[in-house]
Amino acid sequence: MNPTIDKDLESVVIRFAGDSGDGMQLTGTQFTNSAALFGNDLATFPDFPAEIRAPIGTLAGVSGFQIHFGSTRIHTPGDMSHVLVVMNVAALKANIKNLVKGGVIIANSDGFDSKNMRLANVPEDKNPLTDGSLDEYDLKIIDVTKITRAALTDSGLGVKEIDRCKNMFVLGLVYWMYNRNMESSIAFVKAKFKKNEAVMNANLKIMQAGWSYGETTEMFANRYNVAPAKMDAGVYRSIMGNQAAALGLIAASVKSGLSLFYGTYPITPASDILHELSKYKNFNIKTFQAEDEIAAICSSIGASFGGSLAITGSSGPGIALKGEAIGLATMLELPLVIVNVQRAGPSTGLPTKTEQADLMQAFYGRNGECPLVIVAAQSPGDCFNMAYEACRIALEHMIPVFLLTDGYIANGSEPWMYPQSKDLQDIKVEFAPEKTNTDDKFMPYLRDEKLSRPWALPGTKGLEHRIGGLEKQNITGNISYDPNNHEEMVHLRQQKVENVANYIPLQTMDNGPETGDLLILGWGGTYGALKTATSILRGEGLNVSHAHLRYISPFPSNLGEILKGFKTVVVPELNNGQLVKIIRDKYFIDAIPYNKIQGLPFMSTEVVNKIKEILA
Amino acid sequence: MSEVIEKLTSKDFSSDQEVRWCPGCGDYSILKQVQTILPDLGRPKEEFVFISGIGCSSRFPYYMDTYGMHSIHGRATAIATGLKATRPELSVWVITGDGDSMSIGGNHFIHMLRRNPDLNVLLFNNQIYGLTKGQYSPTSEQGKVTKSSPVGSVDYPFNPIALALGADATFVARSMDRDPKHQQYVIKRGYEHKGTSLIEIYQNCNVFNDGAFEIYTEKSSKKENILLMENGKPLIFGANDDKGIMLDGFKPIIVNLADVSANDLWIHDETDLVKATILSRFYDDPTHPDHKPRPFGVFYVNNNKETFDTLFNKQMEHAMENGMGDLDKLIAGRETWVVN
Fold this sequence. Notes:
The complex is a heterodimer. Chain A is of the alpha/beta class.
């Protein structure tokens, strides 16, 4: 009988790492879904190279998936992992620095042969599995390749196909380690390979073999239980940010009664929004894969002119190409949502890595005075809320709206207490009615109390009018070169943005009182790390509060009041200091920047240390 | 449509905006011809939309009392594609120039043609940048001396007709500003075609490139230098209709009608892509002694390629056959759990 002892843990961080062809993303996603269904709170961090099949065995080819799950509330994927699964020596080399001392390493010994050592630039005589360098860790060496091949000799599959099942052995073993039910992964494998029974059976068999390996060998002294988390009561699902953004857009389409048109061009990490939306034509969702980024936004402008809820989506480089057309949409005063799933730049930068460095681009990245509305999502599930809000504001104010997310929340997942459609705020859209009396001319730039102009659709009798990128005379919409009119129109377009502040929620504190020693002011995808850091700091008795911005242009009208209530305001961002400049400019406060520009999210311990340093 | 459409006139299509092209510009003629034929198309005027890019020609929508958009340089084709995809019942027109469509908008131009949305594209070709005051354009002849090419441009020009055929356009035609009737005929044919209709119109810029097409428009030289293509009719040209085109294999040759019967000439067939391609290459320097006449009229029509907007909306209709999806089910996804 296996002498394992069951132990209870509050939370665990596991990192699966291997070659980009080893299936680590799938393994991580499967474990995530099971943990979510079990009722753990969790956060994930897929971290993969830009190359689809980067050179095998090299450091550049390492693909990782980190999951942090627990019986308490979890807001980040974890700074350090407790368990590191490595399929080869490169994966170990790339990730060992982020494993806690004493942590568990599960190493596939086949990935530590001389060839892999050479590819990972590790000297032949320095095999970490044998040279004692891992003595501070709990090292478990398993020849996953050999076991998998042996178990599947009769499967009828070739060696290549058999080797592809290795990740399922690891998954089964980790399920055993954490006393997990494999049901949802069994169902997944059955559905995924329903057309190829041999592959399906091989995957199921080897996942079971992984489980049995844990059960029968005496390699593991302990087995761990992580109880379900005490979450707010409700119904949950697991969600990734891009998925949530797509659902938010669809919800806005359904609630506004408008057909959605998504004009886009494939780009990492935004493409998954297109993939999601293109599945839902039965919700009257139209997707158009254009020939380039410019055509993508322009087709959306055409659709908006025609009365659709028009969206375009991209990442930084694509947004740069769309700049002129965003200016056109601003002049046309038509509703348009521009989604930017930010990645590390400039230029091509680090396509699969996260960053928040496109905030200035969203604010100012066009010629002329070209203000627009900017909202930002703070977590995977929040992508739904802010996508919905972006559509609501665009439609109700006849204005282009930027939705900023980032690679980290776009690909990360979390349990999400999803809303019921009936509870979503209504979106009111009115088209200008047809006009039979042609004595008084239709005025396309006549404004309502929000300063928005009428949405007059082609095909409507009596409303024939021309719009364009040349400066418009207010009210009539005729071309105007009048100096005073131009100045007035620039102010009007600015005021139109400012007025949105009356139609968005006030800024709330995420943690801590509205006055105090220090305010951590964040925006976007850094939410989880800042939230965790704030609760650690407050737990240590420090007078620190956290507010997180989701509405950035305009800011909530009470933001200035909140900022004044603190002796110190720190603005942590994954860029070289962007929001902090806007805050300093607008509110004349000596806000302190705290920046990280490594293509990686903040670790909460980094933030904790920085804040302590500032307070010291 | 049940209600009777009131009879419109060309005046109904002219807006209250003062036309601001240079006096003598070829654009006036094109505006006039479009305003002349629209009332005869039997459509209420609110269904017409004119979308343009940037350049002299692109001011066109301001002068039409229809829906219109004067957009950004080169992108009218993309905007029109988005509008037509979502509002297929509208009659959507693109107004563009040689700089707008062949240079900055070249990419959208070819992709529009391959997709084949039901748009009518009027390409005003004056072989010069007019609005920016006279630089050589992608259709200017090599050696063109302009402000930006004081010793002559080294660029080879684009041949818009050949480019369009190469991009699998389904309606390709050429006309000229100085022949109103021909323009009206060709534009109407383009309107009737289901799919993208590309109509190149030679348009004189009397300020920066005056006389560029003189040889094709002046009475003295016209008949000798243009070839008016008519479907099912032999290809005949010449001052006294005394010359014709024959095909020797794939090689076109000019023959004298004194030596050859008109029955033996090349009979124009608008549906023949290979022959249209040969005709599109009648593009040599008109001052060269052996040059072929420049063809005008409809080069090619393909009625067998379904339009982008039809295909796009068929997919939508198919997906919507069983009604709208259930939003709450979609948001919930496949796997949910309850926390009490």
